Amino acid sequence: MELEKVHVVLFPYMSKGHMIPMLQLARLLLSHSFAGGDISVTLFTTPLNRPFVAASLAGTKATIIDIPFPKNVKEIPPGVECTDKLPMSSLFVPFTRATKLMQSDFERELMSLPRVSFMVSDGFLWWTLESAQKLGFPRLVFFGMNCASTSILDSVFQNQLLSKSKVKSETEPVSVPEFPWIKVRRCDFVKDMIDPKSTTDPGFNLILDQVTAMNQSQGIVFNTFDDIEPVFIDYYKRKRELKPWTLGPLCFASNSLEDGVEEKVKSVWMKWLDEKQDRGSCVLYVAFGSQAEISREQLEEIALGLEESKVNFLWVVKGNGIVKGFEERVGERGMVVRDEWVDQRKILDHESVKGFLSHCGWNSLMESICSKVPILAFPVAAEQPLNAILVVEELRVAERVVATASDGIVRRDEIVKKVKVLMEGEKGKELRKNVEAYGKMAKKALEEGIGSSWKNLDNLINEFCNHGT
Domain range for residue 403? Predict the structure, then answer.
């Protein structure tokens, strides 16, 4: 193999939670080039997403190509090219369907590129498989999930485990056949996932297209590592024809090519964390990702729970739904950051941060484990309840809040109780010890030349380097 001829195309979905790990994958690939070869990476995005992509890949040799996002798409406001500005519950399907209108521009740009060895594209961009097939190179799919949630979903669907004919209650626990020690409930799943849909349902048809394209691809990339979920990785290898490649934790690649220069101007929240560290104070970091839709009632319960817990906290929140007078009452004990993009990894790495109240998006959980910060699991949507099962029950690096059965709201007294468990209790100490052990494993996984994920990436490159147009 001549390493200098390896050319990888990456195409992330237009959502921060999907773009970030793909950008980290770009850095990981390019770090191999500095080890002796010359792997070139071309990343596709749209004009309004380019500044974020360019800033993330600053200092690298990555090529960035932006292709126009379709205009005049029904229901999508003009100038919106990222899901962060959309209500995902109602506009995910039309936004995602609109991306297919980019296909001709995408293929025209591909034809002008040097020979492509393989492409990694987001699973939501199902139509990129057709482009790869037309131009004669392999396509690997990237969903940004872990193997546990994927494997549990697969087992539940294969066995129709939670059909209404078998389970009458939304909260009735049922053992997963291939993993009998794990119990799931209907309320742990998005209804569209477990309830039969009409073949005319737009959401059902989109999922069908995405799954069909995934199964016809040449592999799937997981942002995980072998030592964190070996049982589930083994299940996927045995039960699925699609070959899995575990290349994570990708967040360790985020700074691999940077020169280590400190920020010229520290953000207000980082200065605030420095002050807490100087005083010997511990901080709970609170964030629910860029996409979570949380009701005003739930936001108020979270706020009042944080207020009554008496802990120091840094809360990154969308919008202005927090109860009136909250910030004045908590004073210097808390900081609220509204509608601003923060470097979450830097926050989690800060010495003062000793806990993370998280919505259990997989990127966030990986970052927390890598930073050796225990988690208070507060799953909101999608596969997040399954992610919570992994970190709470399997890895034991997290405690979980419990919603009331009547309305699904996590009440303030539950938040107070569990925050104190995490930040002050004996259980919190145990979780901290466990997460430190997994954090060490995570770092070893990407050790150059010897880590399991590093070796997996070597094998992936070797397998696909002779393919392409």
Answer: 268-442
